[in-house]
Amino acid sequence: MQRHCILIGAPVDSGQRHAGCLMGPAAYRVAGLAATLAELGHKVSDHGDVVPGPAPALHCANPAVHHLGEIVAWTAALAAAARAGMAAGLPIFLGGDHALSLGTVSGVAGHAAALGRPLFVLWLDAHTDFHSVETTQSGNLHGTPMAYIAGREGFAPFPPFPAPVPGKNICMFGIRSVDPAEHDALLARDIEINDMRVLDERGIIAPLREFLGRVVAANGLLHVSLDVDFLDPAIAPAVGTTVPGGTTFREAHLVMELLHESGLVSSLDLVELNPFLDDRGRTARLMVDLVGSLMGRKVFDRPTRGFA
């Protein structure tokens, strides 16, 4: 099935403290994302990079939080870009750190609500990102988007999230780093958490197919947020939040191929790529290959990659 893929750059670099994620959108373009999608028969439109408005002077009670006004400005700009992208096709947001999802999923949720359809979120990440503005100890707002999406309190001065996503509509996949405050908050919600222990015991296929089955039954829209640290750092070094024990090359491609076969994905985040930390572009190219699998490339079609 041909899709109209809308590429939207989101060079957010202030949700954490490792400079370099702002180069992510350019790295995806250089790695051939548009060409990969076109070769698979999809229409591709590159809308360039989102430019946020001026950062308002904002403050919150948590002194650890940094770049608050800047991230609020990014959230508003990306929410608008997401709604426009959803109306035109399948938006693919090129990040940028994971704080971008505060805005992208806001816009996607608004679009879903306008259609009267439920939104489901698949969170492919080493981290749950379930801190609020009030609870984060690092002050890094890339650790907060999932809590915002689920409607957790403690997000002033962010605008209220439009149509918070119920816990039963959220599936976290590949989790292996959770702070105590996040753990306690998650226990109070009906969110499906497939950490690496679960995936080691049950495998990739069963829990993912169960979740996708719920999306089908509800006639939902599916937003996928793919963090580089979902992958093992041995194959994807270009991320500032490496956690050992991530998914392998084969496991990650299996996830993408299952998503393609489902035909359910309606929007996609690619986040936390830091080209400054990469090895000759290998992580950017791997992420592009994964998008290729998500959009229809079969394992026997995959080109041989070299890094010499």
Mean of the pLDDT scores?
A: 95
Strand arrangement across the biggest beta sheet: 2-1-3-8-7-4-5-6
- Strand proportion, as a percent range, falls in 15-25%
Assigned CATH superfamily: Ureohydrolase domain
| Elements, N to C (H/E) | EHHEHEHEHEHEHHEHEH
Largest sheet: 8 strands, parallel
Name the quaternary structure: single chain
Radius of gyration: 18 Å
CATH topology: Arginase, Chain A
Return the CATH architecture.
3-Layer(aba) Sandwich
Q: Let me know the number of strands.
A: 8
Quickly count the helices. Answer: 10
Shape: globular
| Domain unit count | 1
Give the distance, in angstroms, between the N- and C-terminal Cα atoms: 35 Å
Helical content band: 25-40%
Class from helix and strand fractions: alpha/beta
Detail the poorly predicted runs.
none
Which CATH top level class fits? Alpha Beta
Topology:
Blueprint (H helix, E strand, L loop, with lengths): L3 E7 L13 H7 L2 H7 L3 E7 L18 H21 L1 E6 L5 H15 L3 E6 L20 H5 L20 E6 L4 H8 L4 E4 H7 L2 H14 L2 E7 L21 H14 L2 E7 L10 H13 L14
Parallel strand pairs: 1-2, 1-3, 3-8, 4-5, 4-7, 5-6, 7-8
Report on this structure.
The chain is an alpha/beta fold and 308 residues long. It has a single domain, classed as Arginase, Chain A (3-Layer(aba) Sandwich). It contains ten helices and eight strands. The protein has helices at 24-30, 33-39, 68-88, 101-115, 145-149, 180-187, 196-202, 205-218, 249-262, 282-294, and strands at 4-10, 43-49, 90-95, 119-124, 170-175, 192-195, 221-227, 265-271. Strands 2-1-3-8-7-4-5-6 form an eight-stranded parallel sheet, sandwiched between helices. β4 (119-124), α5 and β5 form a beta-alpha-beta unit. The longest helix has 21 residues, at 68-88. The chain is globular.
